[in-house]
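Q: What changes when S-adenosylmethionine is included in the input?
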Amino acid sequence: MQINTQLIKNSFEKSMEKYNENAIIQKDLAEKLVNHIADFSFEFDTIFEIGCGTGILTRNIQEKFKFKKYYANDLVEKSKNYINKILPEFVFIHGNAQKITPPGNIDLLVSNAVFQWFYNLDNFINYYKPYLNKNCILGFTTFGKENFAEINDITGLSLNYLSKEQIEDILKPSFEVLYSFEYKDKLNFNSPLEILAHMKNTGVNSLKTKNWSVKDIKAFCENYLNKYNSLTLTYNPIIIIAKFK
Ligand SMILES: C[S@@+](CC[C@H](N)C(=O)[O-])C[C@H]1O[C@@H](n2cnc3c(N)ncnc32)[C@H](O)[C@@H]1O
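A: The predicted holo structure follows.
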């Protein structure tokens, strides 16, 4: 699917107030990510977080890691207000992480539930290499091919998800993969409408290319109930920790 950065920005901006109470999987992932990074190191001079949003990952990092400088990025400018409440000192870099000028000498490049929105992970990794210190830890979570399987099945809408193996192949020329793990998690709902609301409140509305009419929503609900006995939404998280060679 064609990725529209403006649409992603608008969807996340609108979802921010309801994000934390709805982002159940993302919260769990942020905790897992930080715990796995801590297996290798918990002290970094310079940390750069990409797509910090409302700061779910930022808070985990602040509680568990020692650092000197923290740079936080997001497409949505008001994300800075959320990070302000978590970190006493940081530099906010507003904009598309694939295009901004990153800070130099990064010791931990970290991101939770963002890279699935990138056009091309390979290009992104190559673009960041000059800004990484040797032995820099790259720790991120993203989603694999089974993510939102039900939505893809019913609507045909999906991102161009990469498999864990494809991600590892992209990293291997310049990183040592220290840890990689993929799993599936299902959330339960009471109605197809609740599933759509959950997606909207976690900013995933940008999967759509146009606003759905009442007819589209009705058709989605009917198709869902015809196809599935249980009201679930599948997530397919991937966790990667790698070291820059
Ligand atoms: C699913 S949220 C995750 C937020 C946060 N990392 C967390 O742990 O909850 C994705 C975030 O990535 C941001 N984002 C998406 N694409 C981006 C891009 N190209 N550059 C910078 N931020 C991006 C969105 O604005 C949103 O805040």
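Observations recorded in class: The mean pLDDT is 94.
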